[in-house]
Amino acid sequence: MSGHFILSNISAAERDEALSNGATWSALQHGNIGWTPASRALLSKALNGQAIPSREGLPPHRYLDFAQAGNPDKEKTARFLRTTTASWVSHNRLLRPTGAGLGLKQLAKKAQDAWALNKLNDALVEQFLDPQGARVTIEIYHLGGREMT
Questions:
Q1: Does 135 have pLDDT greater than 90?
Q2: Which residue from 4, 10, 36, 38 is spatially nearest to 111, judged by alpha carbons?
Q3: Average pLDDT over residues 68-74
Q4: Distances (CA, A) of 18 to 48, 63, 106, 127, 149
Q5: What pTM does this model have?
Q6: Rg, Å, the chain Cα set
Q7: Contacts of 7 (CB under 8 A, 6+ apart)
Q8: What number of other Cβ atoms are within 10 A of residue 36's Cβ?
């Protein structure tokens, strides 16, 4: 599995705010890989846009998922994504590396256009509202500055 975006680190408060606005927090992925020199190096290469062989050696991470399915208040979630000024929605934190092997999910056309114009909130909400995708997923590797476990 992969996300539409990567956020290397999120605080517990930022995660909790997202959860209270319609996000879900996934189970741990790649727990069997662990945080090793090799998995850290692979993540570093991927975050820097360098090609990696595949996602298989990435360290443990979770997903913050904003999906329409099962969401009791889609409008509240869309409003949050459109208007949040949370620091995780910044050019320095929310990433979409383009190196081969990382395999991020393709963005919907409107989300891709917004991303290209550096309109991060618009990219998030357009991906969430896209009738075909109906979700935006963000890979997260650190919670509160600590490696995800």
A1: yes
A2: 4
A3: 95
A4: 26, 12, 22, 16, 20
A5: 0.94
A6: 15
A7: 64, 88, 93, 94, 95, 138, 139, 140
A8: 11
